[in-house]
Structures are given as structure tokens and as C-alpha cells.
Amino acid sequence: MTWWRDAVVYQIYPRSFCDTNADGVGDLNGVRRRLGYLEWLGVDAIWLSPIFPSPMRDFGYDVADYEDVDPTFGSLEDFDLLVREAHGRGIKLLLDWVPNHTSSEHPWFIDSRSSRRSRHRDWFIWREAKSDGGLPNNWIHAWSEEPAWTWDELTGQYYLHMFLADQPDLNWSNSEVRDAMSETLRFWLDRGVDGFRMDVVHGLGKNVDQDDPEELRMLSHTPLNDAAVTHDYLREIRGVLDEYEGDRVSIGEVYLLDPAQVAKYYGHGDELHLSFNFTSLFTPWCASAWLKTIRDTESALGAVSAWPTWVLSNHDNARVATRLGGQERVRAAMTLLLTLRGTAFLYAGEELGLEDAVVSPERMVDPGGRDGCRAPLPWSASHDHGWPAGARLPFAAEASRMSVESQVDSPGSVLHFTRQLLALRRSSKALRGGTIENLHADAQVLVFERRCDDECVRVMVNFDATRTPVEATGSSLLFSSVEQPAPGELAPNEAAIFRIV
Ligand code: GLC
Ligand code: CA
Question: What is the architecture, at CATH level 2, of domain 435-500?
């Protein structure tokens, strides 16, 4: 069994995690300092959002050098130490690879824009204006209705950027680009990383000569993002990972909100090992909605024998407490995340039940407006919350009470709850790798069972704010999201796990 199927991957947004040199920004030594905490919590792997040199217009998702560490985060030596210590504690380490675009300050782009005949001209996507002077096509970039094209005076052409103008898209149809990007993977694989989360990887292939259908224009390029040629590129990328021993894993950020489309990115076991399935981020707190999300996912992925993934939030999307409202739901949602069939992704801070911070317009720094879910982790109950130089973003509400320090000392906290759930998952073959069966729901309660050999557990989630009786004959309660579960019923928003005897 490959390690990543069973795994719980903990996502770290390094800027907001832990600062060790008092400059107000988290760093690699900060991650290393907290490895003991992560081991205690019981996660299997960490994924670091980008740590590469970057002008930080998109906070690291604009890479100026794929083969180094930004001085804000530390050095390659710090990185090597981090890998070694993480591995020493049995924690795998994944990096965030950003293949769709570079920073406009990457030497490849600087050369590319310098002349139409430059060595790297065709490494990016340049087009003439239309004969009427218009844009090459009608694409808009991801966060606004602005065109995805920027005019470059010097050479008199447009270049494409699906995100900011500071993030020019690489031309993946050029084999030199693919080879160079493969080298960047090898650079980190040689340093011992266990795999990569791959940023907007479904967007690599592009039919630039096609307009977006008018009715789909607001859907972030969905039809274009699903170009057939991307699958050839993914097979090449997979080939690079396969050169290495030790189950190095590729996890694609495939931002297509239909599990059937997502399933295609696993190929025939020769493309991505795993893909994000973001439907769960947009599923309302409602039994029938979750039933549909799980069913659609299981049937789409099951059809191609692909292993599912589950996620509740990340650095781009609201935290669970903010999105769903209330700590009861946070615990129930965490139970779902860690008991559904698939690899689970836990965003740093979710184990504390943090809310998004309220960020006033003057303190907003992200061009995509995602500052709230990127608030710093409160480590201590003291006024600086373990950030001696302060932090660049405000803390989430009740940072003292929600801090790691306060919650470690409080056995009934969300943190202890999450830790117990992680331990239960680890100890149960059925929860880690078993089948999912008897999935059904009524208006209020969602039910499914996980089975492996002779072990079977039943998960029941009450999505309603009223209590409800449940049939529990032939089962014993293993775990509940509420402090004092009552036999034969589920409390409001209770998630319970039973062993079937
Ligand atoms: C992905 C990242 C997001 C970033 C964008 C551009 O969606 O998750 O944070 O801004 O790609 O790289
Ligand atoms: Ca720092």
C-alpha cells in the first residue's frame, strides 16, 4: 500500500505559520520548530505553499527561481535540515510546484520579453493584436473581468497570463519548457522531497486560438482549462516522478468543479496520483447535498479506480468555522473529512477550529482578497500569540482562547478532538483504506460505512440543529463529536462513529 492513500496531509502556508527570526513572516525554521507539534497531532505529511524566490505579488505563486528558497523563508540549508528532521519524525514533505506560470521577474521571462528573437521568446505565450487592434482572444484572468492579455510595448505583442500580469503563462507546447520544468522537479526530488502539490495543473494545455464561449466566461476558463493535450504533459510529469524510488506523489490542483472532469486527470494510472476535488468546498451543510457530493465523487473516481481526496479549506478559501458557522459544525465536518474514503487534506489552523480573520481594507495585501483565511497561527495565549515582531495580517477572532497553547491545556478543545480523531483513523484499517458502503441520507442524517476485512465502522452525521433518534442495535459507539453523546440519538450537528459488532 502506498503511503499517500492512507495519509492525512497538513497544508502549511509558510508566511503565516511560525516566525523564528522576528521579521513578522513565518519561515522554514519555524516549520522545523513545530515538527514536534505536528508529530503530536498525528499528521502523515506536510505540504508547504511555495517557498521559492519570488517578488511576492501572489505571495510565492509567482516564482522567480524554481531551484532556490526565498530569503524570507530561509536557505537551501534550512530546507535540507527541515527535510531531514521531518523524515526523522516519520513526516513526509511535499512542495508546491507552480508550472502554469512564472513571475515576470523570472530570468526566462525577462529574456523572453527582451526581443522577438530572444532565446526564451517562445517559452511564454505571445500573440499579435488582431487586425482591428483587438485582443488575441476574449479570455479574462482569474480574479477579475480584466483581459488575460497584457500588451508589451517593447516587442509590440500581447502575452498571456491567467492570473496577474506579473504571472506570465509558460508555453507548455514547447518541449524545451517541459524539459526545463522536469529539471526543476528533479532538483527537489534529489533533495528528498516526497512529492508535489501542483498548482492549476489542469490549465497547462491551452487552445489559445479559441474564444471562451460567452456563457462560460465567468467560470475561470473551465472549457479551456480542460484541453486534451494537458494529459500528454501530465504523463511526462509522471514519468519524472517514476524515475525515483519511494512513492513520490503528485497531487493536482484541478480546479474543475465536476468530479467526472477531475477523474480524467488520474489518466489510466499514468497521470496524477491524486487530484483535489473541490466540490466539498462548495457543498452546503445539508445531508442531501453531502450525499450527492460523495456519490458523484465515488462514482466518477470509482469508474477509473482512482483514489479520492477530501478537503474542507485552504489558503484560497474560507475556513470551515467561517463558512459553516459554529464549533459544533467544525467538529462534525472534521469527522467527515477524516472518515470519508480517501486522502485527507487538513489546512493549518483547522485543527484549532479557527475562523477567518476580519481584515480591514487597509491591511489587505492579497490581490485575490484571500487574506482572511491566511491569518497567522496563534501559538500562545499571550498578547503576541508567539509572533514577537507581530504579524503582517491580523489574527483570527479570540486568538488567545483559540491558540495552540490554550487548547493543548484544555482536554475538551477542538485540537484534542482532532488529535483523537486522527489517532482513531490511524488505528483503523477500515477508516484508512476500507470500502465505503451503505451510503444514504434522509432529510437530516447522512450515513455511510467503511469496511476492511472483518472491521466495519458506521459514520452518522446529523446536519440539523435538532436532535434525532437513531437505530444503534448491533453497534457500539467509538467516537462522537459532542462531549456527552446520548444513547440512541444524535445531538444537533453531531457526528458519531460506531463499530458494527
Ligand atoms: C492556485 C493557488 C493560488 C494562486 C493561483 C495562481 O489557485 O492555490 O493561491 O494564487 O493558483 O498561482
Ligand atoms: Ca521570519
Answer: Sandwich (2.60)
